[in-house]
Amino acid sequence: MNPLLQGIGEEQAAGFFLVLGRIGPLFVLAPMLSARMVPARVRTIVAVGIAVGLTPIAMRGADVPVDGIALGELMVKEILVGFAFAFAVGVVFAAVSTAGSFLDTIIGFGYGHVVDPITGTQAPVLSQLYALLGVLIFITIGGDAWMIQGIGRTYDLVPLLDFPSLGALTAGTQQAFAGIFVSAIELAAPILLALIITDVAFGMVSRVVPQMNVFAVGFPAKIVVGLVIMVATLPFAGGWIGDQVQNSVADALKSLRVVTP
Asked: Which residue segment(s) compose the domain that 196 sits in?
């Protein structure tokens, strides 16, 4: 056996890797931690550091099995719990990006794509802007600390050696996924309403003055109206994102419960 593992102890080493399995999904789905702009080596170091800090809290004197089958079952469970928690937080930022995509389509920016530095994929302009805004607010309100505290609290609900209720876990995941579209509509509602009113106004003008080229005038007008309303509603959007992050962490914890015999 490796001399380092002999000095640490088999149970401590097994507990560390189990904790790392629960933390790992945060660096796949959670905001900021999963950003492509952060090098993989840095994300690995941060994940190991968080796991080192949480391992004593997670173990709490538990006798972690070291045989392969039992340890493999616990590792699958830890990864499942980590993905459920990270997904509940990540859907908030999926809703933010979806709201930006709605606005890109209606304003007319949907044809222009740029590389999103967060995900590394191509995205429309406003979708990327909203994603960057979401990450900025996430950092400002200390969302990273909330996530780490939340993942630490999951060990109160689902200890290292217990298994979660798959029914509650699945229901929580479905509820979080179903709320993406509704949350995106809530975030983009003021701008969508203003753009719909603008379309209706130009439709009425085209009936009164049919000689006017509505498309030539309406397209830049919708851009101006959309950007003005978007800038005016940014403070409210920031508050909405902050509240949704807090609610997502709370909902993720609610969906975790131990299987009752």
From this structure: 3-254
